[in-house]
Amino acid sequence: MWKVLKFLIVLVILISIPGFLFYWYEYRPSQIRKECVGIAETKARDMMKIRAKDDTYVREKAHKGWYLKNDFEESYIRCLRENGIEK
Questions:
Q1: pTM for this structure?
Q2: Domain count along the chain
Q3: Residue 78: C-alpha distances to residues 32, 39, 40 (Å)
Q4: Residue 38, CA distances (Å) to 33, 34, 59 in order
Q5: Which pLDDT belongs to residue 29?
Q6: Are 39 and 82 in contact (CB under 8 A)?
């Protein structure tokens, strides 16, 4: 009986460790990256709308949902850093 119980405990531990490692190093970062893309797009569009107050051409692009790549990248990297993905 004790041998079976020990075997089951070892089996659960051996299955749990790879599962946790997969979650921590693969699944969790991919979910954070997806979330950061949405946050970065929103922030970049907001920055474009702020710039649109001074320029008619920029205002037209902002209404179409455009944003500057640099604004997106800065917001994306900041989000990754806040969540512990990038250094």
A1: 0.78
A2: 1
A3: 12, 10, 9
A4: 9, 7, 21
A5: 96
A6: no
**Residues sharing a CB contact under 8 Å with residue 50, sequence separation 6 or more, in sequence order:** none
pLDDT number for residue 86: 80
Residue whose structure tokens are 């205002």: 59
pLDDT of residue 60: 85
Query: For residues 36 and 84, is the Cβ–Cβ distance under 8 A?
Result: no
Tokens read off for 66: 């455009």
- Indicate whether 87 belongs to any domain: no
CB distance 36 to 47 below 8 Å: no
Task: Tell whether 57 is covered by a domain.
Answer: yes
